[in-house]
Amino acid sequence: MDAQELGMQMLEYCRKFKIPQDYVMDILNDQKVVPMIRGKATEYAVEILLKDTLNAREWVVAKLNLNAQSGTHDEDVTVTHQRTGIIIKVECKNAVRGSFKYSTRARIKEPFCTVKCHRSRSDLSKASTTNDRYLMGDFDFVVCNLSNAIIAGATYSENFELIPDTRTVGRPCEYYGCDATYEALFEATYADWRFARAQDLAVDGVIPRTPAVRLENDPVWRPISEIEQAVLDFTRTHRARMKKR
User: Fold this and answer.
1) Where is 13: in which H helix or E strand?
2) What does DSSP say about strands 193-197 and 212-214: parallel, antiparallel, or unpaired?
């Protein structure tokens, strides 16, 4: 899509939803709006990423724009193994804003951040149990990148800012080999896509709301380059279980 086509679609969008076109960028840049847009954008980014990473002759990656019905979970992205028809559900999440930690007083002594791995809205039917948490079976894999973790929370300008801790910021800059500026570190962390299996995250069948991701040598979160082997292993295990039944 070129700039002219994008502009025409933006004008049509404003007309359709009665948005004053002179203020559309103010609305899109609003600090309350940007997180919602970025969350949805992550789903499309994961779709593109998986299509680029997985062998297209073996896997079909799809994103369905469906609204979840009450009591059910919508699927962000699905990966289908073409030879067996087995469908793998992939959840797409961002890191918790400003969650990067590197301190001897932190619960994890190594550099880490957390991922927002819970529903955006509480499920009142589960208020006495898991409420907004995901359960085993809601999805099979979760994919995220670490960029949100280095964005300071509770800022008042329209621009994102780097977390105000020189020591904390210095460690990922060293790891990624980038300058200690917002732009450089944001680009580096955005490019750091990780994935985890739901079964490895779950505790008693429930996914933690904000599981931790270690910057280095995490035992659960793996680099996206390893996901094809992981989904293939998942497919083999799932097929073996089906044969036993």
Assistant:
1) helix 3-16
2) unpaired
